[in-house]
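Data deposition worksheet. Section B asks for the primary sequence of the deposited chain exactly as it was used as input, without tags or linkers unless they were present during the calculation. Section C holds the resulting structure in token form. Section D is free text for depositor observations; keep each observation to a single sentence. Incomplete worksheets are returned to the depositor.
Section A, Depositor: J.P.
Section B:
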Amino acid sequence: MLLLCGVAAFQTAAVSSFAIDLDESFKENREDEIWLVDFYAPWCGHCKKLEPIWDEVAAEMHTLGSPVKVGKMDATVYAGVASEFGVRGYPTIKLLKGDLAYNYRGPRTKEDIIEFSNRVSGPLVRSLSTQQLFDHWQKRHPVIFVYVGGESPLKEKFFEVASELIVYTYFFSASEDALPQDVSVQELPAVLVFKDGTYYVYDEYEDGDLSSWVNKERFLGYVYIDGFTLYELADTGKLVVVAVIDGKNSSEEHAKLKVITHEVATGYREQFHRDFQFGHIDGADYINSVIMDEVVIPTIVVLNTSNQQYFLPETTIESVDDLIKFINEIIEGVAEAQGGDSFYHRIRRLLYDGKSTILSVFKTSPLLGCFLFGLPLGVISIMCYGIWTADGEYEPEEGELLQSEAIDQGDADASDEEKEEDNAAHHKDDNGLKENTREDKDEELEEKSMVEKKRD
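Section C:
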């Protein structure tokens, strides 16, 4: 057991040693090297979750002999350097190539990060010189864009788009001879996208701007949808037709709805692909959080990711014709749009997210939920109770006020009477004193007269 622990610790140390810790000198010393850097914050939970994956990425790229160096930087310590590279959140993964910095926006898995590094670190537009090389790349990647022809303004535009969207997909240039024999190009130069077992040619008049067309066509016609994919689909400007099913449910109605959606996506591409993206999602939890409502699965939901609106069919979708009819009702404006991004819906979203967060905390850790929310509520309750029960200035009602004034008036009258009695008593005492003084004087006079008579 100790031996296994020691081996595991050694392997972990060996893996993590390939991810280089970077400091403020990195910006000046990197020169012409290509770097894949994770800008992180020590307190960030997502950063901690990415850390072992990042060490595996560094180890595998070292083993493969990749020219890309893998590093990591504490963006809270070297905030100035991170700010110069445009870091706004954590973790942020960037591939730094010359004066260019490419943001990684895909799933945080080892395979996806390495794929991103290999794609972006190479040429913006790779050359396909033979059909064998073309077949090799097409088998490895489900979607590729190919420019066919010589020098032209379209080629220059193709390279500009590649510099912008290389973070998502591959770009190639090829001669007409290098294309598969079943590919027919009516006019050169041309840009083609190969996906879904076939190819489509860019038409400037029908498809508009090349960058917008590439951004819309970089997804397969039918995709598995999760939170990240839905976020990426928002950039396409398309409405997203989602079959909401339960992947663990093997009943016919769940499988049938998925088949119907896939058939419309592939069989009616020319009719809908410019405005709609098709796919399915496993479970209703994420869709419920998006529309802030409960849906009964299996069902179809059409999302407008640009303004947070959504459409629900009034009847059950049981056939391809039903789904086509529902989509046409959306196009014609007959179907009712629900939700939105108005002030009311933003407030509702805020309350819904708060409620969901609280319920999630109580669901995953009831004790933690009681501590986080019960303790503050208890303190607030005690404070409110203390405020309401505290002694304050008493304000009598009108009847009590009149009664109080009558009592005060009675007391005042009694006080006046007592004062008059006191004054009368004082006056009587003074009179008595005067009379006593007169009697004393009379007695003295009488005594003097008696003495004088005796003398005589």
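Section D:
The radius of gyration is 45 Å.
The longest strand covers residues 34-40.
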